[in-house]
Amino acid sequence: MKVNNIQSCHLGPEISPENYIPENYFLYLLKGDMKAYDGEKNYTMKPGDYCIARKNHLVRYTKYKDNDAFEKIIITLDEAFLKRFLERHVYDVRPSTISDSFIFIPENKLIQNFIISLEPYYTGDLEISADFVDVKREELLIILLKSNPDLINILFNFSLPDRINLKEYMNKNFRFNISLEKFAFFTGRSLSTFKRDFQRIFGTTPGIWLKKKRLQEAYFQIAEQSKKPSDVYLEVGFEDLSHFSYAFKKEFGKTPNEIAKPVSNRI
Q: The HTH araC/xylS-type domain covers which part of the protein (predicted)?
């Protein structure tokens, strides 16, 4: 499908750059590739792919440019918009059995024509003219629900996360650099209940456990998988390489570089 004038555009509220998805959004990739990991499953997007990124899921993105360009169309299907939509359209909403963080939409003529239809409204500054934002979003939503009725149970589920197994969740998601408040929210707890349950289950505080767990994972990746410290620290949840190196040496008595295998020994 050829889109002549659109390089990138965005409809609806901005998406947070953090490691969690605060609202549902539709993504169409124009140029470049993208890989994402949600703590359990890897996802790959290539030009021409459509998908729904799901609200309240933890993900880590890696973008790969094509000739220094990464171009996409993002349309946010935020809760306020979805609730307004439900006031005019009636659907039977039931609990979803789909757990994937990204729902890929098979290519079809309706979505193709919708993408092409954005061109006349494109202002050239990465935005659609404000007068048409909700009109175009509603058009897309009707097409998506017609193409994949399972999205009804995903997009119109406005409930808060249920209380889930804390030990299982933390062991799966400790690499994500989010606040304790977010960990509490995603496990269906208040912050105080989260801290109390965490102490009971793990025998220590969340902060101490997260730091030790991330450092142990970093040690394994550097010493056993021959990864570079500069490639590991972000992946295991640290924000700063120097802080990571300091914490690593304090925990293990050696710096990350000191336990890394020489380049000649790497496979």
A: 164-262
